[in-house]
Amino acid sequence: MSHHILVINCGSSSLKFALINRADQRATVTGLAEKLGMTGACISFKQDGRKVELTLANGSHDGAMHAILSYLDERQLTHTISAIGHRVVHGGEAFKSSTLIDEQVIAAIDACSPLAPLHTPANLLGIRTARDCFPQLPQVAVFDTAFHQSMPAQAYLYAVPMALYREHGVRRYGFHGTSHRYVTSAAAVMLDKPLADTAFVCAHLGNGASVAAVLGGRSVDTSMGLTPLEGLVMGTRSGDIDPGLFSYLAQVLNTDIDGVTALLNKQSGLLGLSELSSDCRELEAAAADGHAGAQIALDVFCYRLAKQIAAMTVALGRLDAVLFTGGIGENSSLLRGKVIKLLGFLGLQLDEAANAAAIRGNSGRISTGDGVAALVVNTDEELMIAQDTAALCPQAS
Ligand code: ADP
Fold first, then answer.
1. What is the mean pLDDT of the chain?
2. Cβ(277) – ligand 1 distance below 6 Å
3. Distance from the CA of 85 to the center of ligand 1, in angstroms?
4. Quick one: pLDDT band at residue 108, thresholds 50, 70, 90?
5. DSSP per residue over 81-92, as a string?
6. Residue 397 has pLDDT above 80, yes or no
7. For residue 284, which atom of ligand 1 is closest to its CA?
8. Least buried of 109, 138, 154, 264, by fewest C-beta within 10 Å?
């Protein structure tokens, strides 16, 4: 009986996967291969609450995929897979929804690779490796950018010469679309409202972070742009800056564009401000101990997030709820509380006890009153990918 979807999220040095049961939508096995292409490549599997860790003799992506295949073979699970779903970071304007993969689709994904040069080759490697290992199975691509393709031109255009849009695809695309889509649907269910009647600002706060304005289940604006660097303060990314910083920093640091790009992506954000860590949990602990860098980093993070959430209400015209998700959004009652207090003028009122309780997988409403709601919603991008894959690959009866 073919009742599983294999979900693959292939990065440049890691491969995350989940074997999801079509019927109950639960993960039978999850796992992560790390340090691929480096020394010390390893893979771990989690099943029934038990974890198995192995070093990979062949530490390539292909080696990782074969290790997954052997693990599943040994447990008689391989024949239960009916389709494979892949996370693909950038689909440009070519992909407005998830799609079955064929040679044409692979070529179109490849054509988007200048827009995401770090991610696309890894995503394609995952697709090719999976096609080699499972040639008989249909495969589906689920794009981070697709959900935001519904944004209107006034939201996605930069005020630069139009020829740059026409000739080079220079526009805002947005990311985290799979998470924003999942979370806004789940929030409509939590509020017992038809999705078509909802106006949400969704804040996905992990190491990367973005907000999206989602009206009636369609994205109408988001904070990330051509690349994931735009918008909020993130773990190591600066988010919005004056683009004048590029030439100024190139001069004063005697570096080039790649040097400034790396500085803004890898040494900025919470890490750059705190001079301590990119990890929110560590910064909260340090801030509580009086670390001034950690305190200012968290203050800038919260202020900029509140400002972006307020800005997103322009796209919506009204606001039903602010949604918090991702590692920080689902766990940091401290940051959620600070942000909700900054947004009191929008009608948000913090429920302190509910906020403190909404951690480690507890979702729910953290605001009081009948005004604008604040909700903690646990995201599940793997499940969203599995659902899209199942929808495009119906089971033969
Ligand atoms: P990624 O974007 O890599 O998937 P996650 O969504 O897992 O990241 O989010 C990672 C972030 O969540 C880190 O900054 C981490 O410190 C933060 N986080 C996780 N648990 C907590 C917690 N209990 N309190 C505060 N922050 C937390």
1. 96
2. no
3. 25
4. very high
5. EEEEEEEES--T
6. no
7. 25
8. 154
Residue 134 CA to ligand 1 centre (angstroms): 34
For the chain, percent of residues with pLDDT exceeding 90: 93
Q: What is the mean pLDDT of residues 320-334?
A: 97
270-274 long-range CB contacts below 8 Å, 24 or more apart?
A: 270/233, 270/234, 270/235, 270/236, 270/297, 270/298, 270/301, 271/235, 271/236, 272/236, 272/238, 273/233, 273/297, 273/300
What's the pTM value of the predicted model, to 2 decimals?
Answer: 0.95
> Ligand 1, closest atom to CA 278?
14
SS3 109: helix
279 lines ligand 1 (CB under 6 A): yes
Catalytic residue among 62, 132, 144, 192: 144
| Amino acid identity for residue 252 in this structure | V
What's the rounded Cα separation, in Å, for the pair 59 and 388?
30
Q: What is the mean pLDDT of residues 341-370?
A: 95
CB 355 within 8 A of CB 363: no
| CA geometry: angle 240, 225, 12, nearest 5 deg | 100
pLDDT at 1 > cutoff 80: no
Closest CA to 89 of 105, 74, 70, 109: 109
Segments in 150-291 forming alpha helices (H): 153-156, 162-168, 177-190, 245-252, 257-266, 269-274, 280-288
What is the pLDDT averaged over residues 262-289? 97
Cβ of 206 less than 6 Å from ligand 1: yes
Q: Cα separation of 307 and 222, whole Å? A: 13
Nearest CA to ligand 1 atom 23: 331
Read off the pLDDT of residues 65-107 as tens digits, 9 standing for 90 and up: 999 999 999 999 999 999 999 999 999 999 999 999 999 999 9
pLDDT over threshold 80, residue 396: no
144 is catalytic: yes
142 near 384, Cβ under 8 Å? yes
CB 122 within 8 A of CB 12: yes
